[in-house]
Write a structure and sequence with these properties.
single chain, mainly beta, 2 domains, four-stranded antiparallel β-sheet, rod-shaped
């Protein structure tokens, strides 16, 4: 009889979490309902209970990124993974979560100013491609003259997340103002550069 009550409670509670709290992952330890239970989801939401009663305590994750995976090592050690490669860890049973070092992860497209600028006749153009749920995407980087005529296609291919740098050689061009444009998915950015011979 207790097992049937627990399954019904789990289903009702999971529906409540999904609809009202944007929680998409519910984890019960392998020892059943008498052990700590965890729930995580969108907006960095993490909830924890020690007795599977109605009282669930919200934990401070320190992020607003969607959290989708939970792995419990023991009562105090817990790992939670989310989109964009974020990993949270606690060694205190959920009081404080420590983010992994995501300094190298890229979350947005970015087009940098070329260097040097003005240039004669070679310059470098740097840009970033972010992590995305859909994987790699097509990146297009083109150079245009002041009239909008396409001068060169520097990049036109699928690229994984990372920072890229291409070299543009203006040896065959006259002095003047040129533009370079990065297009990737819904992102578009244009920068100006000056060729001075």
């Amino acid at each position: 009889m207790r097992s049937k009550y627990n399954k019904t409670f789990l289903i009702v509670f999971h529906i409540f979490l999904f609809l009202f709290l944007n929680i998409h992952f519910l984890f019960f330890s392998n020892k059943g309902f008498s052990q700590p239970c965890w729930a995580s989801g969108n907006g960095g939401n993490i909830f924890h209970t020690t007795n599977t009663e109605i009282y669930w305590q919200k934990q401070n994750s320190g992020t607003n990124i969607a959290l989708w995976n939970i792995s419990i090592v023991d009562v105090n050690n817990l790992w939670i993974g989310g989109i964009s490669g974020i990993v949270l860890k606690t060694t205190t049973g959920g009081v404080t979560f420590i983010k992994n070092n995501n300094e190298n992860l890229i979350y947005n497209y970015k087009l940098y100013q070329n260097y040097p600028n003005p240039f004669n006749p070679v310059t470098k153009i740097k840009y970033q491609v972010p992590l995305s749920i859909g994987g790699s995407g097509v990146v297009i980087l083109k150079v245009f003259d002041i009239l909008g005529k396409e001068i060169a296609v520097l990049v036109n291919q699928k690229q994984n997340a990372g920072t890229y740098e291409v070299t543009f050689d203006g040896s065959n061009l006259s002095s003047g103002i040129y533009f370079y444009k990065l297009v990737a998915g819904n992102f578009t950015a244009v920068k100006r550069m000056v060729l001075f011979k």
